[in-house]
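HUMAN: Would you supply a protein with fold tokens?

ASSISTANT:
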Amino acid sequence: MDKIEYNSASELIEALQKRIISSRELLEYYLLRIEKYDVNEINSIVYLDIERAIKQAEAADAAIVKGENWGRLHGLPMTVKELIEVKNFPWIEGDSRNIGRIGTVNSPSVEALIQEGAIVFGLSNSPQYGRDVQTYNDVYGITSNPWDLTKTPGGSSGGSAAALATDLTSLELGSDIGGSIRTPAHYCGVYGHKPTLGIIPKIKPLPSPQIQDDLSVVGPLSRSAKDLDLALSIIAGPEYHHSEAWQLDLPNPRHTSLSNYRIAAWLDDPLFPVDDAVSKKLRMTVETLRSNGIAVDETARPAIGIFEEIYRIYFSLLMAGTGLEMPYEYLQTLGVKEDELGLEQLDIGANRFRSAAIRHRDWLILNQRRHQIRAEWSNFFNEFDIMLMPVTSITAPEHNPISVTQNDALPIKDSRKILVNGEERSYWEQLGWISMATMAHLPATVAPIGCSEIGMPVGIQIVGPYLGDRTTIDFAQRLSELIGGFIPPILSSKK
């Protein structure tokens, strides 16, 4: 092919099969770009397994010459988020206490990609245990946004999104519990998909840890919606211990034409006001749909109650889930601190303490309300096919990492702020607009819709019905055909 740069995974796979380019050539292309743009600059790729990857690429090329087919990703080099275990790769999770720990098995999604012929050649950066909305840790350092090196690519799959925007890979595997796929996709101008909870296996064969939270999912990031669908079709399925009896057969997209989609839009809210830089692009997208004869209802809402309640339930469930990783002794100290707070302290910071050490009875009450909300979303999607939302209230903010010690200690007051139309607001409001889909276990696809007036990417969040993953991805693809999709940043290099 005349030009490798910024080709989609699907385009590259076709070129590999037709022997227009070899797997080794593609791998070397990525390695050169990493050396040119990433090292000492963006810092998205934090580990490379070059020697093994070269051998695999050469084997993949030889197999193609022989007419052999390894699968739908035959010979495609790709990277994976460092928090996801890869056999024989470092598995540090951004924690210096884990230095020297090596993955013993492939996580189910990684194994599925490899079984289809993918060559995992590197790991992308993430905050420690994925606990931040930007990408920084004491082991690998900070990752910058390729659109503006002074700004964050988001978190926790910030390395994944930055690598895609820089064309260091064409396909990435990330994870999402607090918008960790969606926010970086929005901040870096790429595509990302948070799947319906339960359709992507996470549990590894024994003797690996089997405790799982009820919010986090593994999902793909890419530079095209078509690639999201390809990756989803590979990694989706039942958990290994259900595979003998269970099958997954996701519904096809609800429609075959953009004009047939029944679209609702929730573009702003007093609880989480949206900055003009984001709002203008969202409204331009809606108006483009309307100018093409496609109706968009901006007043329709599911009967789920007030946004504030939704967010508080989500945040409580989030902190309860992430409390799984905390030592029991530490949770006991949180319980003491909770007693010191007093019932009058109802802010999010105080709620972090209460929820990390939540009692089982209280969790069940929250979960019951969650299922009521899920039922109302189900009723809503009987009338509509998708809901359009912001991903976050802002475009990518400047770097402002918090120390690992502070993160571990769960400070009641996080001093960090974001600016929304010049007003200082809580840093954790970045989790506001992603909370509804996560708490209700709904699929959500992020598609780039252009850049703000200051030149930073803006994405739109496409939320769909339970198990409607192919519907949200299909809409993202059709939207890109109407308004355009991924656009590359202008990269600079100190090399």
Remarks:
- Residues 341-346 have pLDDT under 50 and may be disordered.
